[in-house]
Amino acid sequence: MKRFFSLLLCAAMLLSLAACGSGGATGTDANKLVIWHDKEDAVISALSEYLSQAVPDLDIQFEKKTSLTDSLKLVGNDPSAAPDLFLFAHDKIGVFAEMGILAPIEPLLEEGTLEDFLPMTLQAAAYKDTLYQLPLYFETLLFMYNRRYMQDNEVPATTEELYSYMENNTGRGRYGFVEQHSTAYYSAAWIHGFGGSIIDSDGNPFPDAQAVQDALAYHLKFVRLMPGETEYNTVNTLFLEGKADATIGGPWMVPSAREAGIDLGIAPMPTVDETGLALAPYSGVQGVHVLKAAAEKKTAAVKELLGVLAKPEIGTSLALASGCAPANSACYEDSRVAEDTLVQAMRQTAEIAVPMPNIPEMDVMWTVVGNLLTDVNLSGKDIPSSFQGAKEQAESLIAGMR
Amino acid sequence: MTKRQLREGLGLTALNLFFLALCFLTLIPILYALSVSFSGSNSLLSSDFSFIPRNFTLKNYQEVLFGENITVWFRNTVFLAIVTVFLSLLVAVPAAYCFSRRRFPGRKAILRCLVLLNSFPAILSMFAIYRLLRPMGLVNTRLGLVLVYTGTMAVFSLWNTKGYFDTIPTEIEEAARIDGATDTQIVLKIVMPLAKPSIVTTALQVLIYVWNEYIYATTFLTGESKYTLAAGLNALQATEMTGSWPVFAAAAITVSLPVLVIFFLCQKYMTSGLTAGGVKG
Amino acid sequence: MEKKKRREWIRSYVWSAPSLLLIGLMVVFPILYTFYISLTNMNVYHWFDFTLVGLDNYIRALFVFDSGFLSALLATILWTAVSMALQLVIAFVLANLLNIQKLRLRKLYKTILMFPWAMPGYVGILLWKTGMFNTQFGLLNQWLERLGFAAVRWLSSDVSAFLCCTVVNLWLALPFMIMIMDGALQSIDKSYYESAILDGAGAFARARYITIPAMRPIIAPAVIITVFTTFKQFDVVYLLTQQAGAKTGSGFHTILTYAYENAFITNNYGYSSAISMIIFGLLLLFSAKFQLKEDA
Q1: Which of B90, B219, B241 sits opposite A11 (nearest CB)?
Q2: Residue C58: strand pairing partners
Q3: Is A335 exposed, middle or buried (0-12, 13-18, 19+ CB in 10 A)?
Q4: Are B111 and C19 in contact (CB under 8 A)?
Q5: Distance from CA of C251 to the nearest CA of A (A)
Q6: Neighbours of A (≥3 Cβ pairs closer than 8 A)?
């Protein structure tokens, strides 16, 4: 009995020692800012390099979090575990703003800082007329093709041209065109091309029901000429291995395409013949968000950091380092940025692109639309009833959020 | 060579062939990962896949072993694993012994409740555990994680050891008690050696759980210097926009190997003292 | 005598206390907390300032239990039954074969068979999904095509997705079951077999009258826990077929993947907690029924 207790005591001491050893470093240094992110290494190294020169007095630590949004929901207002800022796309702003963990950005910026920012990025970063993100760069999907198989003069200007190209070039393990046809992010372009949308700004799902169903029905014939997988590994590998002539992909595809030795062409999105509208993809605006606790307790440091992040220099170096399209329009005065085909293509697409909705209700729409698309495209269910089911599911989920 | 020996030899060969085939079948997905981990191009898929990669390279393993904080993560994981396994056995064995040997009010009810606890879908437990750890100042500490891991595995540890204790005949214990042995001595010197297989399986299960657990680790630990191997591995997982599949595959295999080595070494302890000691029930 | 008994009781409680305390903190407390949250309106709009709303969430949760939920429940029961039956039979046979005295390489085989268990589950599932089942590039289809067959969309129909999930679940769960059974086999006194052989009992008779009865009490805890884990399986089904952005078109849902898609993604924690509690209640009913049968 005694022996058992002494063992237990030993264990307890061992544990408390261990706890002290690991728990010591949680001091609140006013100049230390922790930034969570989920970005590629090139972006982060460009950022930390720039910041170490621009704000040498601040200790900026980037930390990659795979489950960033889930972790934030948990620790968002607990300064001992939460970061001070996070770098993420704008589409979760609504959720976090409603939860009450985000600080408005504008009071932390000097007057006039945002004058040069592209209006699209500011629109994306605002939720209920308050700005919650300092945009850094944005990305949109692009029409990409492999020049070895699709000549520049074959690039389809309209969706019907694309379809006839696909018909002529698909078969025997080759594809004329591939995309992640049954994921919401990619299919949104088709829905927008028919004048529809997934959700309106008031949180009503599928405001134009007919447009969505028309888009689904029209899109189906393209899906039939594409592989039965919608997941990105398959689609990207097909394009990168030269088994698909063209695809719709994000800028993140470009480095791997160049590495694979593909003579990559980038073209404007084709126009839907029936409506005359271009396939308009979602755009994602990446930027820094400030957590409330940091804005209150480390105001000076946060202001200093945001001040230098809003300057065109960082946008320019991000554009050069990894082909990001800067949110600050002043960056495009740099000829190296202006001449980058990828950046230019995104800037052009940005004219038609629709910023991803950032309202909390959008969170459930990714799943609803994904289900609708798989039902129609992969399981062969009929469109009106699948659509009706999806609309009902969306409404019940949105009602369930409250 | 007699006919019987021949038949036995044939049977044994067939058995060996069967197990070789089974092992190969089990390993196919892992060989796939192995091939990806040696591949020079960043793709999880390939139309001309072969188990021997075409542009063979060791650079992914180099990146895993030297590029990331893998030694730090390894140390963290080993520390967590040892403490958790030790603590799990320390709390489970005495409890299991009592539940197996003693009769006391509430025993049956507690045992029944322990079964039922498994019915709870723990998908939302994260919040509760966070709320529990935070006031105790245990968020972002290793002690917090050790407690979470030990607690999560405690039902299994208690139950699994108790099940085995039940099968050990009590005669030897009674003899030892007459000789004046204390409870602690009986548990340490008689019951534990006899229950070696279940002690080892319980310890292994706890070890593997800690080794592979990443959800609590990534949520409750901030700072990559505190990560465990599984948490670090999870952060390496490639997505559409970032990361490298070959490096991830190399890391996944590297992380799994120590567990297999431990398993291999532990096997000799998995034979029971019961058969070795020749105790008749 | 009475006093001694009482002292024994106290000693038992003291010895069990650390274990029960940890279980109380990490297992029971989350259940109670989830129950408490299920009575509140904790959601995106009231994340920190939630208030008690009584049984509202439960009333709304009943709407989720529609025909879709019922078919998911039935599928889950079938899934659990099939997975457990296969696991027990296969693990039993393999553990017995591995214990044949003259098998010299036993340790090596055992170690290799443990490999799926040695890596985090999501890695294994990912390898199966992309490496094996992928329609375009998966090994299964590459082999089929080499043999002259047409490619199969493994994960897209309900039945084949169910089978594929079962295979992957077996792959993930068998190592543990084999190890538990292997450990249990060690406890059986070899002299029983010797006398049984002398009595002329065949392999099946020995398995039926010696091995299985002797193993039962030892493996029961692990088996029961595995039944629950299988019933509550989320990762295998979700990651293989239902993952957002990589859906395959299969309609196979377990109750948890169904609840996930129809409640958990709303970020409404009160509502989701109510659903968790209802699933908990359902499982309690099942296990109560199961236990009655066991006792009878």
Answers
A1: B90
A2: none
A3: exposed
A4: no
A5: 9
A6: B, C
* Minimum-distance CB partner of C112 among B26, B124, B158: B26
Q: Cα–Cα distances in Å, from C281 out to B99, B123, C60, C278? A: 27, 15, 16, 5
Same domain, A351 and A397: no
Considering only CB atoms, B98 lies closest to which of C15, C110, C187, namely C15
A10 domain residue, yes or no:
no
DSSP A281: -
Same domain for A308 and A225? no
Condensed to tens digits (0 to 9), the pLDDT of residues C126-169 reads 999 989 999 888 999 999 988 999 889 999 899 999 999 999 99
Q: Which domain holds residue A197?
A: 142-280+361-401
> Which tokens is A396 given?
């019940």
- Specify whether A272 is located in the same domain as A370: yes
C7 touches chain A (CB under 8 A): no
Give the Å distances, CA to CA, from B75 to A9, B210, B217, C10.
24, 13, 14, 40
Nearest CA in chain C to B47: C137
Q: Which residue has the tokens 């403490």?
A: B83
Instruction: Supply the pTM of this predicted model.
Output: 0.90
Please state the rounded mean pLDDT for residues B158-171. Answer: 89
ipTM metric? 0.89
End-to-end CA separation in angstroms for chain B? 39
Which residues of A are less than 8 Å from C122 in CB distance?
none
Q: Which residues of C touch B23 (CB under 8 A)?
A: 109, 112-113
Contacts of A14 in chain B (CB under 8 A): 83
C16, C128, C229: residue with CB nearest B98: C16
Delineate the domains of chain B, giving CATH numbers in brackets.
11-57 (no CATH), 69-277 (1.10.3720.10)
Which residues, listed in sequence order, are joined to residue A278 by a DSSP beta bridge?
A271
- The total number of structural domains in chain A stands at 2
Does residue A386 sit at the C interface (CB-CB below 8 Å)? no
